[in-house]
Specification:
Oligomer: single chain
Strand order of the largest sheet: 1-3-2
Shape: globular
Helix content: 55-70%
Number of strands: 3
Structural class: mainly alpha
Number of helices: 8
Largest sheet: 3 strands, mixed
Mean pLDDT: 88
Order of helices and strands: HHEEEHHHHHH
Strand content: 5-15%
Length: 154
C-alpha cells in the first residue's frame, strides 16, 4: 500500500475507498480476485510468496482488484457479456499505475501484452471457458494465471 500511496495518490484513494481489506490465504484457481461479499482483494498465499512476485506486481494487482470493486459499487456486475470490457478497464488502470513506477518496464510490458491479448480473445471470458479453466486448475498444485504465464492457451 505504501508503494501505491507514494506513486499514485489517485489510485491509492480509490483502493482505500473501494476495498475494506486485503487478505492472503490459499486460493485454488486464482492468483488473486475481488471478493464481493468481503469487499476484499484476496491473494493466493503461494503467489505472494513466489520469488518472482515483486511489491510492484502485488501493488498492480491491488489496483486491478480495487477497480473491480469500484465497478461493482457502481452496479456493474461481472456478467459474461461485460467481462472483456471490465478486464480491459482494470488492466488500463494497472497500466496507468505501473507506467509511473521506476524500473517497472517488464511489468508494464506484461500488462500491455495482456491487455492486447484479451482484446483479441473475447471467448476467453465466456462462462464455458471459465468452467473449463476451473476444472483444469483443480488438478494443479498451484494454479497459475494465464496472464502471469503469458499464455491464454490450455
Amino acid at each position: 500500500m505504501r508503494l501505491i500511496k507514494s506513486h499514485d495518490t489517485l489510485n491509492y484513494s480509490r483502493v482505500i475507498r473501494n476495498l475494506e481489506r486485503i487478505w492472503v490465504y490459499l486460493l485454488p484457481g486464482d492468483l488473486a480476485h475481488y471478493d464481493v461479499s468481503l469487499k476484499a482483494c484476496v491473494f493466493d498465499e503461494r503467489y505472494v510468496l513466489l520469488e518472482t512476485t515483486t511489491p510492484e506486481r502485488i501493488a498492480s494487482t491491488i489496483i486491478h482488484e480495487a477497480t473491480h470493486a469500484r465497478l461493482e459499487a457502481w452496479g456493474i456486475g461481472y456478467d459474461e457479456n461485460k467481462r472483456a470490457r471490465i478486464e480491459a478497464i482494470c488492466l488500463r488502470r494497472e497500466l496507468n499505475f505501473v507506467t509511473g513506477l521506476p524500473d517497472a518496464e517488464a511489468l508494464r510490458e506484461e500488462v500491455a501484452r495482456t491487455l492486447a491479448a484479451y482484446a483479441d480473445n473475447n471467448d476467453y471470458f465466456s462462462d464455458a471457458n471459465f468452467a473449463r479453466l476451473k476444472e483444469r486448475d483443480k488438478s494443479k498444485p498451484c494454479a497459475t494465471s494465464e496472464r502471469r504465464t503469458g499464455s491464454m492457451d490450455s
